[in-house]
Design goal:
alpha/beta; binds pyridoxal-5'-phosphate; about 15% strand; six-stranded mixed beta sheet; Rossmann fold; about 45% helix; 2 domains
């Protein structure tokens, strides 16, 4: 049974945890002990087979036939590489490309699965309206994942002026009868906080009738669970390439914002994958990296807009799950720390707890200049073009230089952030993202992912801009129309 990170008395099954999103006490849903999977069995099957094993282990209430069908549909022809997450070797650097899905960012891995599971978990009378705060990539991936899924609606909120022009265009051009998009006056944390408040807003709930609200961020276990799979798959690809022997420990470098991606790596380790260190990379919004180095989480500082907007996050929600596991399931402690964070913007953990965390995690941060230099130097050395988020990981990996084989997770296609990338690689400025895309294609002979190549021609369907205070009323109206 799942429980809450803030109240270990609570018990609910995985279908309920997935439908509800997060606990009414504000905590996140966790399994008190993570199940082990059989490594040999994982290494003997393909991506889809691995996904079935991991999802069955983490979401035990879903019938095997349902998981089978969900996985088959989620990892099908909408991916432009049959391996789903191909591993690239550049000299002695391994890069796991997580961006071959329909929206060209790693969010597709979870968001091709979550809507299908959710639809299965609810009864025929229930309708669910998904609220998604997004720093850019979750929004589009959630819109595509939930588009026209029966009994569901999806509303995404992104910081006005806080996402890349391509990301904004991707969201505003989404099709589907049940999709909604609004820009929010504020930053990502303002949007995320407002979404969390709406989920615990009794007055709003009373207006919604039979419509339930839920979340598609990585705080939803139905999104986190699928992300565990690619850590095993990367390991398998290394074994197949002869780079390691089964049983050898490897490291992963993970560009981090909300701590969902790297937490999935920790889940993989707890479930039996031989992992040495998880290398956490942030951009200049370095709250998480500083915490992992000092034991002090402090968000009382300026929010910085960087060239890796999907990581411009000051409150890393999923860190809460790590605190739960590393404290031995001490939900009272987690509740206290989260209260400190809410009231003072800061918390500090004991030396013992920090030590336990540092057994598995090392961390660093990268500046925008580091990121631009890394994109340019990797391109000139090995002829590989990275996106800015991935480049944060590259920089931090080289700062910290952890011994052993290390896989860098590449979280987005460079074509999602073409202006920054083209500027670094081609040493020229471009008026628009589309100009930059075209220049990259022509001068670097790269293939633009099909959905991004078509984007410029698509009509924009949404132009709503809201103050955070106006969000509940807007959501109530959407629910009425469902
Ligand atoms: C969301 C995102 C991240 C950060 O992932 P978290 O799970 O929030 O840590 C990094 N890079 C890209 C491109 C993203 O979209």
């Amino acid at each position: 049974m799942y429980t809450s990170t803030r109240n270990a008395q609570l018990q609910l099954n995985s279908k309920e945890a997935l439908t509800q999103g997060f606990a009414t006490d504000g905590g996140l849903f966790v399994l008190p002990t993570l199940p082990k999977v059989d490594l040999d069995q994982m290494l003997a099957t393909n991506y889809q087979g691995q996904a079935k094993i991991v999802l069955s282990a983490l979401l035990p209430d879903f019938e095997a036939e349902v998981i089978d069908q969900v996985v088959t549909e989620a990892y099908g022809k909408q991916w432009d590489d049959a391996r789903i997450t191909p591993l690239q070797k550049l000299n002695d650097q391994y890069i796991l490309e997580l961006f071959h899905g329909p929206t060209s960012a790693f969010k597709d891995i979870g968001l091709q699965v979550l809507p299908r599971l959710l639809h299965n978990a609810i009864d025929a009378q229930t309708k669910v309206l998904i609220l998604a705060a997004t720093s850019g990539d979750t929004g589009k991936a959630a819109l595509e994942g939930f588009k026209d899924v029966p009994q569901t609606g999806i509303a995404t909120f992104y910081p006005d002026g806080g996402v890349s022009p391509i990301q904004e265009k991707q969201m505003r051009t989404t099709g589907g009868e049940n999709t909604h998009v609004a820009a929010i006056k504020g930053n990502f944390d303002d949007a995320q906080t407002a979404v969390k408040q709406m989920l615990n807003n009794a007055e709003l709930a009373a207006k919604l009738g039979s419509v339930k609200l839920s979340v598609a961020n990585s705080i939803n276990i139905g999104r986190l669970a699928p992300q565990v799979v690619y850590y095993f798959n990367a390991y398998q690809q290394l074994v197949q390439a002869g780079a390691i022997q089964t049983g050898d420990e490897i490291n992963f470098t993970v560009p981090t914002g909300n701590f969902g991606d790297v937490l999935a790596g920790y889940y993989a380790k707890l479930m039996g994958l031989p992992v040495n260190k998880l290398i956490v990379a942030t951009n200049a919004n370095s709250e998480v990296a500083d915490f992992l180095n000092t034991g002090i989480y402090d968000r009382n500082r300026d929010f910085i807009k960087t060239v890796s907007p999907s990581m411009d996050i000051q409150i890393s929600s999923n860190l809460e799950r790590l605190l739960f596991y590393k404290s031995g399931g001490d939900s009272a402690l987690v509740a206290k720390l989260m209260q400190d964070l809410a009231e003072t913007g800061r918390y500090q953990v004991s030396a013992e707890l920090l030590d336990a965390i540092q057994q598995d995690f090392v961390a660093g941060s990268a500046s925008d200049d580091d990121v631009r230099d890394a994109i340019a130097s990797v391109d000139s050395k090995v002829d590989y073009v990275m996106d800015p988020h991935t480049a944060n990981g590259y920089v931090v990996q080289h700062q910290l230089n952890v011994p052993g084989v290390t896989v860098l997770l590449s979280t987005a296609s460079p074509f999602k952030f073409p202006q920054v990338v083209a500027e670094a690689v081609l040493k020229a400025r471009f008026e628009s993202g589309f100009d930059a895309m075209a220049a990259l294609r022509e001068q670097r002979h790269l293939t633009i992912p099909a959905p991004l190549a078509q984007l410029q021609q698509l009509p924009e369907r949404f132009d709503t801009v809201l103050n955070p205070e106006a969000m509940p009323e807007w959501v109530a109206q959407l629910a009425k129309e469902m």
